[in-house]
Amino acid sequence: MCENKALEVEIKIGEEDASNISATSINCREAYIVAVDIGTTTLRSHVYDIEAKVIGSSTKQIELLYPKAGWVEMDEDLFYRQFVDVVCDSLKDAFVKASQVTALGISMQRNTFITWDRETGKPFHHFIAWRDTRSDDYCSTWNKCIKVRLLRAMSTFLYTVTRNDRFLASSVFYFKNQTVPMRLLWMHDHIPELRARMLQGQVMFGTLETWLVWKLTGGERHVVDVSSASGTLLYDPFMMKWSTIVMSLIGLPSDILPEVRDTAGHFGTTQPEVFGAPIRIMAMAGDQQAGMFGECCFGVGDVKCTMGTGTFIDINTGGKPHASVAGLYPLVGWKIKDELVYLAEGSSSDTGTAISWAQSIGLFNSVEEISKLITSVENTDGVFFVPSFSGLQVE
Predict the structure, then answer these.
(1) 0.90 exceeded by the pTM?
(2) pLDDT tens sequence across 63-78
């Protein structure tokens, strides 16, 4: 039993680190795993033992900043401290030392990003959250511009000739706030120092977990998981690499982008002083992709729906990226060695937000009252309410 469990842990380590550890070197009683989930408003850490039982947990609220209407940001220094604290608190709750932890895994809100100086490590701005809508005008202007219209027209022609799904996907290409390009371009246009340093090749871009790994490893790793990268619209899931087309289209250099890694593998090792002992970061995934994996949606056609700050519906489309004229752009679900799984996704950004809004205007005092309100009438008499204050989205 001990040998089998140790072998399972070793499989998670990946080829890069496999030479430094063997199944016999892992003490079964001390093979703990820390899993951290970074949501839009909540940060959770759980410690799992060798039987995959939760033996310690910690939760913290993520503080969002709203400097202007439509702007949603996160203080990067506060967030980093909260991340370290929530992991440490969960270890204390489990009576486990960092030296006993075999691996750290992270799932995270997607498309929240930051840029920082390659030489000094100083950020040019706070985290720009995925719900930020400051680039509304950019999206509208760019989606009507001649460049994007030509891209759609050329893609339509090429799809007609080749029947290649990659061109079908780009034939309905458009920018939206929830993805990265227009918000990143907005930052470029409005922060002179960022613009100047980008011209000098001294800017690093990263989604939330990219910056976390960079900080945790002492600036040694500038990496991102493929599932997270695929949702940014800067990544081509058909070619499985950063999109030179999109980067050229918006006029930003590709040298700012991190290295893309498989979902499971060695992303780096935390500095000893962070948690008291080095911990290997062995898995990262976007929150919705992690949700699909956690719900065991491994078969083609499997669907999951999760409701938090937003509602997300994902369908497993197997090993082939899905494209449609309805605008369902493919995402990478996960890539683990030779296994590559794609998803198609649709979402509404304001499920939890709508509940908070309804409570704030006095429709109910507590969330628990909602069920009673729903069942207090026989029907809605044809009235429907769609919680989409920030719009509906398809990926």
Answers:
(1) no
(2) 999 999 999 999 999 9
